[in-house]
Design brief:
395 residues; Rossmann fold; 18 helices; single chain; 9 strands; alpha/beta; 3 domains; 9-stranded mixed β-sheet
Length: 395
């Protein structure tokens, strides 16, 4: 299990069961040089080492490494769950820097060094179709550039972000507010397994822990703590995503907000963040430039390839600010296939129709024979991907 000494594992798991405030747990670990030292100390020695309340001290002393610790160790092995402790060299370095890092992480899947380049994409559970589309697109574009996408595995924006990263063939990390053996949310059971294959699902709480409401804001500090920056896609005025944004700012990380419809309650939280100084994020380049991350993915990278190993995006952008001659030269050099991989059929038809010419929406509908609703939705998706640009006059 990670780099943990096997003899120390039961003590680590017993300490985790005590659920002490992270800062106090870390103080005890430093004072007693590890979890085994804590459980070898007398109650008086423990009480004098840190400011534990009587309730906390009683809860700690009730955990026995040779009992609950051993049983938890067997359960973790049976479930394929590993642990990483704050004393391990492969503990996430960004998370180690926050004021209250979790002493122990339960992990299904694998955390890798490349996850040090991570961006959190979060938002409301009750999101609009627009918000879901933006979250999926931003996460996909981040993953195509080798950026790990971190989110909370909730329905709504979180789920769309994880799915976008997975579809791009990239890495994603889901941070849960319950034990890793708890099927929550039930509708994301399949998504959770996909995340484990292309990243990791993690938690700081022991097996069997229920997702009670107070655990979510505490969990959010891990989402922001793992990330260079946090992007809030959509959030009403009272949203857990705003807590994540506040925690990111307190941790010294960048905060981004996606603007929305001024008449929509879904956008009020994001607009407030922008008023308060958050970075406005209209496209993925806004995020990458602020974080000093590469704007393009390496063509040799495995990141950004579909499950067949083909490039997930092979189209020339039609939204370039270059002149017509430069655009034509780029198109001739790139020679995109008439049916780029990684795009739905209706988007391919729209791209083929547009070529490098400006066209009215009505003209596109006629030439593609697609319903107007599909054309509008397809153009919105292509615009979010940076492949088309809507011009004045409905061009």
């Amino acid at each position: 299990m990670g780099n943990v000494e096997s003899s120390d594992i039961p003590a680590w798991l017993a300490l985790s069961r005590a659920e002490l405030p992270p800062r106090l747990a870390v103080e005890l670990l430093e004072h007693f040089h590890g979890p085994t030292g804590i459980f070898s100390a007398s109650p008086v020695e423990i009480a004098s080492a840190t400011h534990l309340s009587p309730t906390m001290l009683s809860r700690l002393l009730s955990q026995r490494p040779d009992d609950i610790g051993v049983r938890d160790q067997a359960a973790l092995q049976a479930a394929g769950i590993s642990i990483i402790t704050i004393q391990d060299f492969d503990y996430p370095p960004l998370l180690r820097q926050i004021p209250d890092p979790p002493p122990l992480l339960y992990v299904r899947g694998r955390l890798q060094e490349e996850d040090n380049r991570a961006v959190a994409v979060v938002g409301s559970r009750r999101c609009s179709p627009y918000g879901r589309l933006v979250a999926h697109s931003l996460a996909r574009e981040l993953a195509l550039r080798g950026i790990t996408v971190v989110s909370g595995l909730a329905v709504g924006i979180d789920g769309a972000a994880h799915q976008g990263a997975i579809e791009a063939g990239g890495r994603t990390i889901g941070v849960m507010a319950c034990g890793l053996d708890v099927p929550y949310p039930r509708q994301h059971d399949e998504l959770k397994e996909q995340i484990i294959k292309q990243g990791a699902v993690i938690s700081e709480v022991p097996l069997g822990t229920s997702p009670t409401p107070p655990r979510f804001p505490v969990r959010n500090r891990i989402i922001s703590g793992l990330s260079l920056g946090t992007v809030v896609v959509e959030a009403p005025e009272r949203s857990g995503a705003l807590i994540t944004a506040r925690l990111a700012a307190e941790q010294g990380r960048e905060v981004f907000a996606v603007p929305g419809n001024v008449n929509s309650f879904h956008a009020r939280g994001c607009h407030q963040l922008i008023r308060d100084g958050a970075n406005l994020a209209e496209k993925v380049e806004d995020i990458l430039q602020e974080l000093h991350l590469p704007l393009v993915a390496s063509p040799d990278s495995e990141i950004g390839r579909d499950t067949a190993g083909r490039p997930a995006v092979t189209s020339v952008s039609l939204s370039s600010d270059a002149g017509p001659a430069q655009q034509a030269a780029s198109a001739e050099q790139a020679q995109p296939s008439p049916h780029p991989t990684g795009f739905p059929p209706e988007e391919n038809r729209l791209l083929a129709c547009l070529s490098l010419q400006q066209k009215y929406v009505d003209q596109i509908i006629r030439e593609t024979s697609l319903p107007s609703s599909q054309v509008s939705a397809g153009l919105m998706m292509l615009e979010l991907k940076g492949l088309v640009k809507r011009l004045p006059g409905n061009l």
